[in-house]
Structure formats: structure tokens, C-alpha cells
Amino acid sequence: MELRLLVTFEKVATVLSFTRAAAELAYAQSSVTSQIRALESALGTELFERLGSRIRLTESGERLLPYARQIIELTEEARTAVTAGGEPAGTIAVGTMESLTSYRLPPLLELFHHRYPGVRLALRPTLGDATRQALRQGTYDLGLLMERETEHEGLESEVLTREPLVLVASPRHPLAGRSGLTPADLAATGLVGTEPGCAYRDLFEAELAPHGPVFTEYGTIEASKRGVAAGLGIALLPRIAVAGELASGALVALDWEPPFSLFTQIAWRRGKRLPAHVRLFVEQTRRLVREELPEPPPGSP
Question: Per residue in 229-248, pLDDT tens?
């Protein structure tokens, strides 16, 4: 079996489309079709069922897929080891979100820039669902998620930390300094939100839903913070993203605890053999994120 045939098979099996696989591999569709036929001929079995305009893997295709992925990943690891002279090297496509890229990853990016120059990090800004799908399809090597759930279909994941959330407002906001705030109190005031699909935005909106909340979407965390500081509303954001503003007094924390928790996680496709430079990224991410965790207050469990 030729490696290029296995690469083409793995791509078609992942996206379940000859047309899309051809586009992603920069091949003509006829070339993809002929390579799949050549592989089927070499193995003496059909790998895909053609169902009109759709395809799906046969039982033989399902059995071949994990082997194809292992062969491809081992080949890439061997190539990297030989050409890099023992130094970590290779590209890592990482799906991540704004709050993690801007507030948790800078120390990690600095470390890799200075200590591991052979490793190229390609950060892809996507939200949870899109990141998970890209991991399953092999478009991303790793994903950084901030989600309530810690188990994801088809993925291996590791919780790095619980991500504290805080409801913030301008010090001049009418709710600043009030105690015992209720969801009805919050829904009755201006609400600033990041884009839909962001886990904490969606959970916050669902919590207030019975009270008819109206969100003004500012899209990004930075824009949301500016809107809140200007007195245009309140926002639920990761504490790490507003730590500076809380310390300076530009924003204040309101007396409301969200009834849900989010966990920052690192994830990859289940069964994927991680090359050495990808394993290094996982290890360093785990170490740096956990080093950033605050010390628990005295007397806490």
C-alpha cells in the first residue's frame, strides 16, 4: 500500500466527501477517485459504499481507518525526527478561543518561540462545536476548550483547570454594590454578550431566559469590556479576562454567582498518536496553566 493512497483514503473517510477531500488535498476529484479505486484493488475489497450523492465507510473501510491513521502519523513522526536532528519540530494546528488565546496562552507562546523555534504553532480561532468537529476530522491537531462538559464524543480530553466566571459592571452601574441579585434583576438591565456559541454566553442567556433578557452583542471580550466600562450594560466573563480591570477599579464584580461551572480543557482525536512535538505542547500547556492557578484561601478544602 502506498502512503499517498492511505493519505487520500484517510481524508475521504474523515470528511465523507470525494469533492471536499479533493479540495483539501489540492487534487482533481478524478485523481481522488482513481486513488481510492487503486487502494480498493490492492486490498481486494470495497472501502466505501456509494449512496447516491453520499458515501459511507464499509466494514472493511472502518477496520482500515485506524491503521491508516497510525501509519500516517508514524510516518510524519519519523520524518520530523530525522529532519529535525533530535530537536522538537513540526506544525501544530490548535483550535482555541479568544479568552484562552489572549489570557492563558501568552506564556506558552513565548516559551515555544524562544525555546522550541522548530515548532510552528498555528492558532485557529473557533468556538467549542467547531473546534470539536475540526478535531474529529483531523483539521486540528489539538483543541483548547472552555466547556461545562468534560467528555466529548470521539475525543480524548484533559481538564486543565476550572475557569472562574465573574459578572462585571461599571462602578457607576445601578447594580454595583447591591447584594442578593436575582436573575430577574439581571435580565431587567442592559446585558452585554460575546457572540452566540460561546459557552458562558449561552449558559448565562439560558439562565436568564425565563425573564426575557435582551443582549447587545459586542462580539469580542475586549469590546464587551469597553462597553461595560462605559456603563452600557453588565457582562459575564472569565475572571482571568477581567483581572486587570477589577484590580484597577475600572470594573467591579457584582454579587451573583453563576449556577454552572466551566472547565478549560485540552483535547485531541481519540486514538490519535500524538507526535513528540505535539506531546510536548500538551505537557507544557498542562504545566503552565496549572502554575497560573491561584493559591486557595486559608481554610479552604
Answer: 999 999 999 999 999 999 99
